[in-house]
Amino acid sequence: MSSLSLDRHMPRQRRAFDWLSVIVMFASALFGATLSPPGAEQPDHLGPAALLAGASSLALLAHRTRPGVVVAVTTLCAAATSALGYVLNPLLMAPVLAALYWLALRTDRRTTRVYLFAAVAVLVTTAVTAEPGHHPLILKTLGPTAWLLLPVVAGSASRLRGAYLDAVQARAEYAERTREEEARLRVAEERMRIARELHDVVAHHLALANAQAGTAAHLARTRPEQAEKILTDLTGTTASALRELKATVGLLRQADDPDTSLQPAPGLARLPELTDACRAAGLEVTVTTEGEPRPLSPGVDLTAYRIVQEALTNVTKHAAAGSAHVRLCYLNDRLTLTVTDDGSGTASATPAVGRGFGLIGMRERAQSVGGVLQAGHRHEGGFEVTTELPLHLTTPAPGRNPHPHPHPAPETRSGPQERTPHRKYENP
To answer: Can you list the domains of the chain with their CATH numbers?
Structure first.
């Protein structure tokens, strides 16, 4: 068990480990003082060796706070023992080896090298100059050097392994944070998408219902039969709004909820229902198709339907128009949607700040499938919304407008004032 792992334990356990280390090192050093090569003479008394072994072992208690000082004290004690005539061996140098291990474990490589070279120089010099000459030279030079290298290598390896584990843990924590941030981003995107769906459903049907109710109230006394027919259509409009609202809110249910609606998302196939609802609200809508109709991916199909729905809703709410025209033009790789009206647009010529986000929502929808949306006033009067969508779902480059144009035209309907590129129209 390493000293670093014990640092995470309770203080009482750390103190017990430190004192156990002192006892083991003292016993090892004292026993090492009794060892000598065959034929070599040893000092008669172990008293000085025992005192030096005790001093160097007690110094190990400070290895957590002052590892360099502990290495210096244990090295000097071992050198003094060698000068008294005791041969240097691993057991006699046990306190020095333990001090070097903890130094390598707790400090950097450069500091460890400095203390290692100093300890080798002191011990080898003392052994060569002060020990009796009958001790083998190899025990005085190569022996201490080799034994002092071992704890330094072991301590450095343990330190590097600890640093590697810390780095792995840091990378794992970073990956976890990244996953959480990505999950939050996806949740935010999903909320924005659901918000757009709710806006399209509620704004469109409520605008039609409001127009139908106003028309019915106006005709209630003069033409009660027509008012009754409009009120019947109003019931269908509100029922359709409830169905689409339930389907949209159903996205928030659990996957295994039996009440979740299985109705497919709306697409251009439901344009006749949309135009009929607009006619019931007093807006005559015509639809023309150019080119051969091509199948669309579900995302593009839903986007095209929602853009037409929002554009007609804006006509109903703001344009004071009697008719609108929807043109579908199928080309080789894209679909062009154009919604025009013959209104004056005076109802929203000066919209209040933060009034609505219809044009912003349509543009975001178009960009989400790789398309582009343009909107502006027409020279001959009225307003036009033009959208180019790919026939198959693509991902647009972030922040890039596929069709830039230097002549902007203001947008003044269902949203804050913005300047949108438009090829056909200039400022009215």
So the answer is: 3-140 (no CATH), 266-428 (3.30.565.10)
